[in-house]
Automatic annotation (TrEMBL):
Record-listed 4-aspartylphosphate modification sites: 55
Keyword DNA-binding: yes
One Pfam family recorded for the sequence: GGDEF_2
GO molecular function list: DNA-binding transcription factor activity; sequence-specific DNA binding
Localization in the cell: Cytoplasm
One GO CC term on file: cytoplasm
Protein name (record): DNA-binding response regulator
Segments forming domain Response regulatory: 3-120
Gene3D superfamilies named among the record's database cross-references: 3.40.50.2300, Homeodomain-like (1.10.10.60)
Amino acid sequence: MYKLLLVDDEEDVREGVVREVDWDAIGFEVVETAENGREALEMVERLQPDLVVTDIQMPFMNGLQLAEAIRERFPTIKLIILTGHDEFEYAQKAIKLHIDEYVLKPFSAQEVIHALLKVKAQIQKEVAHREDVQLLKEHYRKSMPVLKENFLATLMNRKLPRDEVYEKAANYGIDLSGNGYVVAVLSIDGMLIHEDDLENRSELAKSVSLKYSEDQALKYFALLNITEEIAEKHGLGLVFMHNDEVVVLGARESRDRDTALQETMKMLEEVRQNVEKYLKFTLTVGIGTVMNDVTKLSYSYEDAVLALDYRLILGNNRIICIDDVEKRAVEKIRFDDVKEHALTRCIKVGTNLEIRETMDELFQGIEGGVSVKDYQIYLLEILTCILKAAKDSNLNVDEVFGDNFVPFTEINKFTSLEAAKHWLVDLCANMMNHIATDRQYTYKNLVEMAKDYTRSHYHEGDININKVCGHLHISAGYFSSIFKKETKMTFVNYLNHIRMEAAKELLRSTDMKALEIAEKVGYADANYFSFSFRKNVGISPKEYRNNNEKGL
């Protein structure tokens, strides 16, 4: 069932349309009716219907003004205009607003049903288009090369969950099976000059540099092709561009790390020699650490980039393996950006269960023979991340953890990993509780400030949610969700409530006319004030005053 809002200032028209149409039969539900555009717009914000059927000529805000406001803020809502033969000028403007259907007055129930069914068909067509599996498959097929390269780039930049790696690899036709993974980065020797670097240079220099930049791009394209050919010949490695350099990702079933590394080095040496012989330029290759876990490919990539830095010492036109220039007794444990982000997210918005699970993941594998030095550095990095999250959340560390809290000293007291992990979990849980309390206080404080501002400015005709948010320096979307959560009503309803209470007080305590009271409480239009008063209070301002004088 699609939700419909009916807007017309004539009660008999509204009642007639609702009565004469079999809404269930055509798949619509009239969720609300409104007497004018301004009232309807408030309902649209609250109900967000699929379709608005509106008259043009209405008081306070006509149908085209309503349509314009809806188009601006809720572009997916469909619109049907009810218009008379003598309203051609309005109809012309309606065309510019991309109104979906028109019904000419006077109209029959069948004409309304016909328009509704046409709009319903439009909605269903749009839904079908978005759900068209064949169309999606075609888009997916055409986007596959880009998606595949983005996935490989993601593997180089951050750690992904194992299940996600294998699932996406299967989707993109990438074979990542194996027990030895290594990444190599191939960099053409010499500096690549980009177009951005050409500022403040002579025209001749710019011309030469641009040509040089284009030549470098062609060289990398040639390097990519020759590397792909040789990798395919050996059945070894995925080849792709990343950060303007050629990257080779090797995934092999090998007896040991050395075998995987030697096979990769042999293939890359063939690439290096072919490039020098046939393409007439040289390149330097950085090879990272061999990993036995596919989720740690980003570490191998980082090491490959680091290995390239050593060409400043060792020279160009060679293969540099990180294990040759930085001897490592055991594989390093690393507190990378992904781990930092996961821990920070948990502390700020997670649950106690999530923080325990995250900490378990952080400590997984530490028992595998890491050096004491690396272990201590790793704990310090975790602790630094926790303290940084406390600072970002404006927490007073002394208040949260006590006056005698000396975090970097505490770490040295632990005699087991389990004890250190429990201590860190408790730290995080304590912080989470304080952050949640502070956030709730902030929410309440923001809402109270908004209420105070509204109570002080409700008499101004231009006060609205955007003006309040400007005063509070927050976004309207963020404020709307907080305000509704804390007060159980929308801001518009709250503003109307404040104005109505003020109006009732003035009606009780003064002899001011309705026009004067309307201006006093923020309504530029006295008629709309009377309309709103009756809508909210149930009687007119005059009746309210008379009842009050009679003690009713």
